[in-house]
Amino acid sequence: MIISLDKCHLPFRTALIILSVVTLPWLGGCNNHSETATHNDHAAAHDPAHQQSATPPSETCRDKKPSEDAVTTHGKNVILLIGDGMGFNHLRAGSLYRSGELDAPPYRDFDVKLAMSTYLYGGEYVQGWDAFANVKDGATDSAAAATALACGTKTYKAGLGVDCQRQPVDNIVEIAEKQGKSTGIVTSVPLSHATPAGFVVHNVSRRNYEEIAREMILDSGVDVLMGGGHPWYDNDGQLLETPESYQYVGGEKLWHQLQEGAVGNDANSDGVDDHWTLIESRDAFRNLANGPTPTRLLGVPRIAETLQQGRQLDGDGDYGSHVTTKTVTPYTVPMITTVPTLVEMTKAALNVLDNNDKGFFLMIEGGAIDWASHDNQSDRLIEEQVDFDRTVAAVCDWVEQNSSWQDTLVLVTADHECGYLTGPGSDPRWNPVTNNGAGKLPGLEWHHTSHTNSLVPLLARGAHAEQLAQRATNADPVRGPYADNTDLLPVMQSVLAE
After folding, report:
1. Burial class (CB in 10 A: 0-12, 13-18, 19+), 60
2. Secondary structure (DSSP) of 364-405
3. Which residues are CB-contacts of 400 (< 8 A; sequence separation ≥ 6)?
4. Maximum separation of any 2 CA atoms in the chain, in Å
5. How sure is the predictor about 313, in pLDDT bands with cuts at 50, 70 and 90?
6. What is the pTM (predicted TM-score) of this model?
7. Which of 23, 83, 87 shows the shortest CA–CA distance to 478?
8. Residue 329: is its pLDDT beyond 80?
9. So what's the pLDDT on residue 128?
């Protein structure tokens, strides 16, 4: 059975009724389709766009553009948290590990709990409940998904901030800046990777890392940029004798200029260049959680790629795809202590951005959930999911202590699912993730090493959260009402509108 945004629209009243019934056991599962069809999460590859052509479809663009239907009332801040590759079962696994419960805080307190489709331009959501392998076809990549989330426009694989004809489309960062808001991007993977880049740049291919980094640093109006990609450190946080690559930070010359504090552009259109303040050490990130802040902040932790996921897995130094870790207990390998957590990076970003009385937009990505899922690393998945969950909790704490739910919209979702994660013994059934108690690795089973076309979680709390429920006009027999990834932009616009 196939459902797209152009078909099977349920009346708004019907959608709300389904929402009230189906989303209560949102992470608890339901006994359908022989599974307990509790989840239909799916997979992706470490960098799927590297195997995909950057050539867009030749036909004219048919997908909807950014919406103008913002409401008259508005909030002040939008904080969007993206668990890259995070499906329903990833979220469940993290909750079970943290608390031994499904739908544990912070997600328990969210007002709106839906599902979301993520398909590419020209594609459709194909329900996976008739055949186990259905969702392995038609999956998006992080570049196209980030473009859909940030620009409200579907595009081809590898495209960043452009439509299917390679034409630039305004993103939510640019929209917020036109409203006089501050903007920030935080990620646990290289800062010029697909998801963070999709919220800032306009580029025909996500593979142009150096070019993308230069656009983010030299041409954008972003006030906070944080992510990995340090040229002088490896994935264990160890100093290299010579740097391996400057691609994630815009090239060797630009990196040296950043270290000298000599790089900036007119980010706020006042005729004066706003130079970046570069921070690298964990203490520097921690110190910025409170107190005075620079005008613009570029944070590059001393790590090659991911904050923790790529760290050493055995005595030979092998990691990533070289080692099978399906039965390794989370945190068996000591965490790197010299790099900040995603929580620490987020707190520093919030402290900079909330200096603007007009408000801000902040995107936070738990990017290595996807990297762990590509390699089917159950232990690293739990570690990355828990770090992301703690970041969501920290954001909610910030709202309650420094803002309000009337002024701030918090959204939590994924760009796609990765790994086709289920409980043990699945295929052709969908069995639930097994609860082995708090602090114990849940029973998990991987069925893919690439992205899938399954629905992903979508949660909202705060200003205008109810608008997402109004946009969930399609229904899945297991997940219930679902919106599309292009539906987030108009809701975010309505919060930021003057």
Report:
1. exposed
2. EEETHHHHHHHTT-HHHHHHHHHHHHHHHHHHHHHHHHHS-T
3. none
4. 63
5. low
6. 0.87
7. 23
8. yes
9. 73
- Could you write out the DSSP letters of every residue in 309-322? TTS--STT---GGG
Judge if the upstream peptide bond of residue 428 is cis by omega within 30 degrees of 0.
Answer: yes
Could you name the CATH architecture of 2-496?
3-Layer(aba) Sandwich (3.40)
Residue 378 — very low, low, confident or very high, per pLDDT cuts 50/70/90?
A: very high
Give percent helix, percent strand, percent coil of the chain, each to the nearest 5: 30, 15, 55
If you write DSSP's letter for every residue of 416-446 in order, what string do you get?
Answer: -EES-EE-TT-SSS-PPPB---TTSPPB-EE
Residues 6 or more apart whose CB falls under 8 angstroms from that of 316 comprise: none
Residue 25 has pLDDT above 50, yes or no: no
The per-residue pLDDT for range 37-62, each reduced to its tens digit, is: 333 333 333 333 333 334 333 344 54
Amino acid at 353: L
User: How many other CB atoms sit within 10 Å of the CB of residue 161?
Assistant: 28
